[in-house]
Structure to design on (333 residues):
């Protein structure tokens, strides 16, 4: 059974859930092994001393800033859902958006499919009708991060090698994904080049038609603002963390490194950018003169308080969202 079919049916197969759990645990384990190795190389005492500088209130504030990001992006998801015509409320959309975080580091970003499955159960809308919502949400994230990276690089005293190309690629991808004509043209060209997957290309063309609901400049500007505020909140958290650890490299530079590393991690193809984002972050901090005894714990802490915190929230909300969607489907039946 394909992944889409298993997601669109009832609860995912046990074997698939086990695989996703093992992937999640394996990725987390590999990253932790790498960070622990770096910490050991720099000296446990130095690493422990840096972590000891943080109070519980400072860590909680980092988590609050991450919540700002999730809530602003969740609000954006709700606005997109309403614009598409979905009969959902704010609480319902936030439940779907946050619950999907549980699958952030699973292969193929299954979290997106899970959200679509919940929508199908609760509203009756099939995957083809809700696909534009997922597409425009991801495109809006790319646009917001590209704008932040471009602004941060312009204000930073030092540039980041590859920063401008990455920002341009993210901006172009975000633009193409929200242009119905371009996306439809891509699907047509893809069908001609490959000569295969006819049903897939047809579905992409149908989804492209639905994207016409998101072409309003006012809507996309508002979405970009919400995304920029959300991602800057996490970038600011990274800046504060470095200041608290005694390595203030400047707000613009810290934000640029955080956003670039997040985008670079995504380009590696690894679920959630795990591994690639951490490596990029440590390397860029080293170029700024931040010693390993600071960059390693800073990277570990910011990833725990952003990516892994989001996954934790998703794991808490996922069972609630799953039960609610099943109950709603039975009620309608």
């Amino acid at each position: 059974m394909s992944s889409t079919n298993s997601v669109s049916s009832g609860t995912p197969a046990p074997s698939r859930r086990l695989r996703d759990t093992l992937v999640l645990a394996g990725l987390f384990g590999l990253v932790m092994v790498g960070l622990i190795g770096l910490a050991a190389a720099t000296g446990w005492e130095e690493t422990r001393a840096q972590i000891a500088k943080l109070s519980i209130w400072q860590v909680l504030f980092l988590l609050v800033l991450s919540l700002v990001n999730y809530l602003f992006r969740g609000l954006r998801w709700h606005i997109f859902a309403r614009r598409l015509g979905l009969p959902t409320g704010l609480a319902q959309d936030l439940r779907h958006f946050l619950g999907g975080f549980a699958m952030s580091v699973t292969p193929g970003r299954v979290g997106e499919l899970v959200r679509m499955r919940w929508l199908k159960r609760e509203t009756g809308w099939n995957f083809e009708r809700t696909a534009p919502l997922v597409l425009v949400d991801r495109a809006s994230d790319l646009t917001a991060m590209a704008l932040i990276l471009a602004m941060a690089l312009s204000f930073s005293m030092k540039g980041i090698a590859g920063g401008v190309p990455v920002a341009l690629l993210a901006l172009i991808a975000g633009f193409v994904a929200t242009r119905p004509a371009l996306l439809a043209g891509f699907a047509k060209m893809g069908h001609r080049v490959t000569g295969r997957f006819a049903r897939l290309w047809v579905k992409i063309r149908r989804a492209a038609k639905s994207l016409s609901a998101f072409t309003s400049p006012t809507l996309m500007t508002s979405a970009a603002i919400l995304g920029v505020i959300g991602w800057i909140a996490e970038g600011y958290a990274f800046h504060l963390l470095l200041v608290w650890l005694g390595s203030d490299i400047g707000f613009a530079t810290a934000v640029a490194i955080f956003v670039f590393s997040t985008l670079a991690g995504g380009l590696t193809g690894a679920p959630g950018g795990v591994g690639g984002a951490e490596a990029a972050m440590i390397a860029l901090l080293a170029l700024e003169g931040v010693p390993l005894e600071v960059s390693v714990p800073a990277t570990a802490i910011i990833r725990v308080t952003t990516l892994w915190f989001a996954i934790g929230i998703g794991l808490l909300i996922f069972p609630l969202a799953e039960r609610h969607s099943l109950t709603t489907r039975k009620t309608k039946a």
Q: What stands out?
A: Residues 157 and 239 are 15 Å apart (CA to CA). The radius of gyration is 20 Å.
